[in-house]
Design a protein that fits this description.
By secondary structure, the chain is mainly α. The chain has 2 domains: about 60 residues, Arc Repressor Mutant, subunit A (Orthogonal Bundle); about 150 residues. It is about 80% helix and about 0% strand. The protein is built from 9 helices and no strands. Helix 1 crosses helix 2, helix 4 runs antiparallel to helix 6 and helix 5 packs antiparallel against helix 9. The radius of gyration is 21 Å and the shape is globular.
């Protein structure tokens, strides 16, 4: 028997609501506890769904945590995109593009994103693996941003755009590692000042390069 379109639409909408409720509940539990330490039963209760509903949408808790991290990263990418769209158009040079990207990065609340990801990805005794996971996260984000900006910056060679974006964003990943080591990924005025100093050093290093002074 073929179900009416209205019935299928209601079922699809219900599934979408359940999936979103589960991911929102996972995010809420992670933020409360600082780690993805919760059971399926706790997650189901927070999402106000049945335990079996969780597994109707996701294969495991690890998958839920991974998608939750991806949503946070997507939010950061959207923030970056909005910031670059707010900046005035440059003169079509790579230096102008660099200035645009640097301004956008300065305007982002990266410490909050980094602290969240570190809390999710870091495990006791697994610092090396956690650092690698953070690097992978930034690598995926960098690739997406490089492609987007290359499509936007039609007056600049795509290779130059991708090198520029990759250099700066991979530098952000390095700054994030040093910031975590120095501050423990805490979010207070002092730790944020440390981040600002690291970001200033990064941007200055990329802007001026490493050629000897003329």
């Amino acid at each position: 028997m073929t179900l009416p379109a209205s019935t299928l639409d209601r079922r699809s909408a219900l599934k979408a609501r359940h999936r979103l409720a589960i991911l929102d509940a996972a995010d809420s539990l992670i933020r409360e506890r600082g780690k993805p330490h919760f059971s399926v039963d706790e997650l189901a209760q927070r999402a106000d769904v049945a335990r079996r509903t969780v597994f109707n949408h996701f294969a495991s808790l690890d998958e839920i945590v991974s998608i939750t991290c991806t949503r946070v990263l997507t939010g950061a990418v959207d923030e970056f995109r909005a910031a670059t769209e707010r900046t005035p158009d440059g003169d079509g040079t790579a230096f102008s593009l660099f200035s645009e990207i640097a301004l956008a990065v300065r305007g982002m609340d990266l410490p909050t994103v980094i602290a969240y990801l570190w809390g999710v990805l870091a495990e006791e005794g697994e610092d090396g693996r956690s650092q690698s996971a953070m690097q992978d996260v930034f690598a995926r984000t960098t690739e997406q941003l490089a492609l987007e900006l290359a499509d936007r910056s039609v007056d600049i060679d795509r290779f130059e755009v991708e090198i520029l974006v990759s250099t700066l964003m991979n530098g952000v990943a390095v700054a994030a590692r040093h910031w975590i080591t120095t501050t423990g990924a805490s979010l207070d005025p002092e730790s944020r000042a440390v981040w600002d100093r690291l970001l200033d050093r990064l941007i200055d290093a990329v802007r001026t390069g490493y050629a000897p002074p003329a």
